[in-house]
Amino acid sequence: MKKFGIDLSRSVLVPKETKVEYDSRRLKLTEHQLQTYYRTENAPVIFSSHKRQLEMRRRLRTILPESRVVSREDLSAKALDGASCVISLGGDNHFIFVSHFLDATPIIGVNADRIRSHGGLLSLDERNVEAVLGRVRDGKGRLDLWPRIDAFVDGKPVGRATSEILAGERGRKDMSRHALSLNGGKEEEQKSSGLLVCTAAGSTGWFSAYAKPFARGRAEARWVLTEPFPRDRKYKLRTGAFMAGDRLGVRSLNDSEGLVSVDCLRDAPFPFGSVAEFRLSEEPLRVLGG
Predict the structure, then answer these.
(1) Contacts of residue 134, Cβ cutoff 8 Å, sequence gap at least 6
(2) Which site from 71, 88, 175, 200 is most exposed, i.e. has the minimal number of CB atoms within 10 Å?
(3) What is the pTM of this model?
(4) Dihedral angle computed from the Cα positions of residues 259, 261, 265 and 269, in that order, rounded to the nearest 10 degrees
């Protein structure tokens, strides 16, 4: 962690559509028609969130009038050329999505609706956004480096995870089979519903159903076997951690439709005999806050 200032005049704002905006575009319905579509009991909650998100978007545009706006639908690495930082306005899933387009460019996570969104990865909301962005502008912001995981299948890169990677069968009802090893050591054959490999940032999510979350301060990642089979088998490599320079190897024994899924955003085929490798990325996610 270090103090960090940035030229916010070259920042890029990437807002997420509200559910009302998304459904209106997707279904070609007016807001009045959506009131009926959402049913009476759901409509007030959805439209209240819609208004809070629009207000947060308006507020950010007031604080950063010089910031360039790029929609989620138009987001690409090219669209972010020249950006001093990227401001993700939405929830955790949107933050993770935006992070996939970033190498060294810092990101700022702003929760668009604190009432309805958990925002575990987002340090800013309507209570502190103006103060924190002011400190960033004055060179008093905080830059944190969040480890990410690079994934490879048969030697080819298939994605970089901000949160987690699942290695298993596409259909979770199918038994996942693989042989696991660390740094080329002895393999252990395992059966389960899948192998979950997680960063500290992602450990409060899916991973937390199987193991305790861990702090973001250390450069490490962890894995856990989900629903191991048989239930009482004592797998030596059921869970563990790896650091910079380590390699977690997974040889697929899947006989249906194996995959390696990176943040549930990018899927790579992982058929029988394929070998996946996971290691800490040399490009951590640079996260700006106050």
Answers:
(1) none
(2) 71
(3) 0.94
(4) -30
